[in-house]
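Forum: Protein Structure Q&A
Topic: Joint prediction for protein chains with partners

I've read a bunch of threads here and the consensus seems to be that you should model interacting components together rather than docking separate models afterwards. I'd like to see that in practice. Below is the full input, 575 residues plus whatever partners are listed. Could one of the regulars post the assembled result?
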Amino acid sequence: MLALLVTSLLLHGGAILLRWQRLDHGPYLTMFEILSSNVWSLLFIYSLAYWRYRPIRPTAAIILPVMFIMMGWLMLSSPEEGHLPPTYDTTWLVIHILFGKVFLGAVLIAVGMAVVILLRHYHIGVQRLQRLPDNTRLDDLAYRFMALGIIFDTLMLIAGAIWAQDAWGRYWAWDKLETWSFITWLTLAFALHLRVTYRPNPLRGAVLIVMVFILAFLTFFGVPFVTMVPHQGAI
Amino acid sequence: MQSADLVSAAVFPRLLVWLRTLASLRLTLIIIVVFALSIGIYYFSDRRYEWILAMPLTLLAINLSAAIVTHPTFRYRTPLLLFHLALLMLLLLVVAGRLSYLRAEVEVTSGSQFAGSFDRSESGPLHQPGYQQLHFLLHDFTIHYAPGIQREETEAQIEWRDDSGRRMSTTIGDHHPLRLNGYRFYTTPNKGFAALFLWQPTATASAQRGTVHFPAYPAHEFRQAQRWVTPDLRLELWGQLDFDEILLDPEHPSQFRLPQQQRLTIRTNDKRYSLQPGESISLPQGTLRYEGLRKWMGFKVFYDWTLPWLLACGVVAVLSLGWHYWRIFSADPWLREGKE
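Posted by a regular:
Agreed with the consensus. Here's the joint model:
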C-alpha cells in the first residue's frame, strides 16, 4: 500500500513538475492546477502519517475515497493554461500556499480518525474498524493534528497578509477568500478551545473536526470556484 | 486594621470575582461564536460598519486581559502566556492601526510631481497628516501586456529628495512600493492619457500650465473624453482624444504607450476645434494651447505604522503556540515505545 502511494506520488509529482516547467509558474492558478497540486500535497502529507502512525493505516479507507473524488473533479476541470498575473509573481504566494497545504493535510488526517469515531457511533463497519485504536486514542491523535493545523493555518494567514500588502497595498480587506479563511481559523480555534474548556467526548470532538474540514475545504476549493477576482487583480 | 486594608479587603475580592468572570474560558467560546457571526453580518451587509467587528474584538481583548491576570495556568506555562500576550497585543495594534491609518488614491502625470495632496483619501481619527511634505517626481512608467491584453509587469521611474536634500531615484512596481516617511505608494493598473495645456487668460498676463486626465485606458478605451474648467473658472471645456492606432494588441505582446498620431477635439460654447500638439485656439476668455500628450498613473497610498509590529506579534503568537503544543505533546508521545 505504501509503495503504491509513493509510486502515485512520484508519477503525479512528475506530471506537476513537467507542467510547471512548461508554463513557468507553479500549480496555483487555474482550478485544474489548484486541484492537482492539492491532491498531490494531501496525499503526500497523508502518506507521511500513514508511514509514521501504523495503527491508523486503515483510515486510508476513508481518506483515499476523498482523494478519488478530488481526482474525479480534477479530470472534469479544464486543463487550459492560465495567465500568471503580476500579483502572483512573488515568493510569498508560494510560502502562503505551502502553509495552506500543510494545514489542510493535517486536518484531513484528523478527519480520517474523526470519521472512524462517527462510523463506530452509528455502528457502520464496526468489525472492520476494530483494528484501529479505541476512540479516546484516535481523538487524542486527531486533536494533535488539529493543533498542527491551527499553527499552519495561522502561518498561512500571516504569509497571505504579507503577500496581499505587497500585491494590493492592503494586508486585509475582507474579500471572499480572506473572510472564509478567517472564519475557518475561528472555527478551528473554537474547536481547540472547546476541547480545553469542556473536554468533549470523542464523538463531539469528531463532529467539530468534520465541521472544520468542511469549512476549510469550501474555502480552499469552493470560494476560488465561485470567484478569484479579488486575488488576481485587474487589467 | 487600617482603613486602607479594609477598603482593599472589601474591594479586591469583588474585583477578583469580576475578573474571573470576565476571564471565563466559556465566555471565550461565546465571544468566538459572536465574532464569527459578526464577520458574517459585516461581510453580507451593504454598508460595512466597523463597530460590528469592533464589539466582539473589544470583548475578546477584555476576556484575554482578564485571563492573563487571573488564570494560574499562565504562571507555569510560559509559551501559553506568550501566545495570549501576543494575541492581546495584536488586538490592541489593530485598534491603533484603525485609529491612525491612511488610505488614499492619487493620479500623477508622467514628468510631473506628486505634491502632497490626494484625489481621494480616508484616514483614522488620530492620523497625523505628514504627507503634505512628501514630494516625488514620476519620470515615466511602463506596463507590459501579454497577448489577450493581459497585464504583466509594471515599472515606474521615481525621483525624490531625501531629508538631507540628496537626489534619490528608484524603480517601483508590482510588489515594490515607494516608501516615504512611512507612506507607501503602490503602482496600480489604473492609468491613462493626460493632455497638457497652457492657458493664457485675456485679462491677465500670467499663463497657467495644467493637465487634464482622460478616463482610464483600456478600461474606458472608447470613452476618452473629459469635461473641465479653466484655472480661472471662466470657461467650461469638453475635450476628446482621438487616435486610430491599436496600442494594446490582443494578438501580440505590447505595452501601454502614447499614440504616435493623435488629435484633440475641443468643444466650448457650441463650437468645435481640432488641435494637434503645439496648436492653440483663441477664445474671448483667453488662449488655450495644447502642448502635447502624456500618460498618467493612479497610485494607491497606504500608511499604517503598526504593520511591522503586527507581523512581529503574529510571528510570536504562532511560535509560542507551536512551543506550547510541542511541550505538551512531546511529554506524552502518542506512539509509545513497545505499545504500538
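The two ends of chain B are 63 Å apart (CA to CA).
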